[in-house]
Design brief:
14-stranded parallel beta sheet, alpha/beta, Pantoate--beta-alanine Ligase, Chain: A,domain 2, 461 residues
Length: 461
């Protein structure tokens, strides 16, 4: 083979190798491009599904909000919203560039709340949510609500009303609502002043009064306006006005709470110990938490006999406790109830140096603290202390003596039409917690307005 032919053959071989290399590169790039395009398509598909799924959840939540609006107002058919219970009400809506719809169904639950089931649908994607909604009386928007007069005394009496924690101020709550007006004993009343461990209030107090009812001052009950009081150092804003119907207090459903206490066996162990202590066979074998006046007096006597134990070992009542008589704590006695409520048909009198504590956890935060369904009087003797979580619903806060302390994280409702609340010489500290709007077992009068409160929200399959 001549040199020229050998050179041409070598060039042809090299060209073939180059072509082969280019072909391999093209195949690799093509495969990578196809993989990239497939991956991008998958990502776009998933992103689109995620967008539609999020939009469907938003539609379902919009259905819940629509139900709340109707429950507080008028139903689409013109009837009362609080009685509206559709089996499947549908509305369409736009969520960004997407079209969707929600379908809501409402039903009653055994504790008086309304269950809202809402289905949101957007471009073939469905999400479902369920909300348990309480229909609360507007009275529970007030930290201190009195059907009658709220009387504020001079020092040493002090009243402090503040939110229970950060973020509460985003809820539309009121410091004091008084159907009979607010009566200031003098211009030196201690209102939202720091005293020892108490935190100071922020800004002036909001007050709600019926039309035609005024703020009054001194023994003569002279009419006074908020501007005059502020000039004299009383931190109070201009009163807001509402119709008298706003000041109707809800009824306590005694049957509801008595049934809950009758079904509770949480205190059977303490009943047995108290029965052995007194030699009372009936109390020893008692399983429920509904007590007569005599039974509860025996229980208190037993608790006093073991009060020397360390707090971690001291007996504590649990759940709903129902007393068919009154309650008197004497001689420095202490009564503690955890994750429950105390319901007393008669009066509640805390003697000098006594202590009553009713506390909740997160799971029981909507339970009331103290209920007196027959409208009894609450009195706190010298150096007595009442600490309660939740709603304190009484007939009248009649006396808070010197050194006594009423401490509530929730709200206080006093329903006596004359003088509902009077702090004579002690300290009243109310930290408003809007969870009181979820209090079960309250009946709002027919025709009265309601406020909705979501007790529980969950997504369901």
């Amino acid at each position: 083979m001549t040199p020229m032919r050998r050179l041409r053959a070598a060039g042809a071989a090299e060209a073939g190798m180059v072509l082969l290399a280019v072909l391999v590169i093209l195949i690799a790039v093509g495969g990578s491009s196809a993989s990239f395009i497939w991956s991008m398509n998958q990502l776009q598909t998933r992103a689109g599904h995620r967008l539609r799924s999020t939009a469907a959840l938003g539609a379902a939540d919009a259905g819940v909000q629509r139900a709340l609006s109707i429950l507080e107002g008028i139903a689409p058919d013109g009837s009362s919203g609080r009685d509206w219970r559709p089996a499947g009400y549908t509305e369409t809506l736009s969520i960004g560039a997407l079209e969707g719809r929600f379908t809501i169904s409402l039903s009653d639950d055994p504790e008086g709340a309304v269950v809202v089931d809402s289905v949101g649908e957007v471009v073939g994607v469905t999400r479902r949510v369920r909300a348990r909604v309480a229909l609360a009386p507007p009275a529970l928007l007030a930290a201190l609500f009195g059907t009658g007069i709220v009387r504020l005394e001079r020092p040493p009496a002090g009243t402090v009303i503040v939110p229970a924690g950060p973020g509460i101020d985003r809820y539309p709550w009121i410091h004091i609502a008084a159907g009979g007006g607010v009566w200031f004993a003098g211009t030196d009343v201690a209102l939202n002043r720091a005293a020892g461990p108490l935190e100071p209030g922020a800004g002036p107090m909001t007050v709600l009064l019926p039309r035609g009812v005024d703020l009054v001052l001194d023994r003569d009950r002279q009419r006074v306006d908020a501007g005059q009081l502020r000039a004299l150092g009383v931190p109070i804003g201009e009163p807001m006005r509402r119709d008298a119907g706003f000041f109707e207090a809800p009824e306590v459903d005694q049957t509801f709470y008595e049934a809950r206490a009758a079904a509770s066996v949480a205190n059977a162990g303490i009943n047995a110990a108290a029965g052995r202590y007194h030699g009372d066979g009936d109390l020893m074998h008692k399983r429920d938490s509904v007590y007569t006046l005599h039974e509860f007096e025996q229980l208190l006597a037993y608790l006093a006999s073991v009060s020397h134990r360390p707090p971690t070992r001291a007996p504590v009542l649990q759940g709903i406790v129902y007393v068919t008589g009154g309650l008197w704590l004497r001689n420095g006695q202490t009564l503690r109830i955890a994750d429950g409520a105390l319901v007393v048909e008669g009066l509640v009198a805390l003697g000098p140096g006594t202590r009553l504590e009713i506390t909740h956890s997160a799971a029981t935060r909507t339970l009331p603290g103290l209920l007196m369904p027959h409208g009894g009087r609450l009195t706190l003797g010298r150096n007595a202390r009442l600490r309660a979580h939740g709603l304190v619903d009484v007939g009248q806060v009649a006396t808070i003596d010197e050194g006594a302390r009423l401490e509530v994280e929730g709200a206080v409702l006093a329903r006596t039409p004359e003088q509902s609340f009077r702090n004579t010489a002690g300290t009243a500290l109310i930290r408003y917690n809007p969870a009181v709007l979820g209090t079960p077992g309250l009946r709002v009068p027919r025709g009265a307005p309601v406020v909705t409160w979501i007790v529980k929200w969950e997504e369901i399959p």
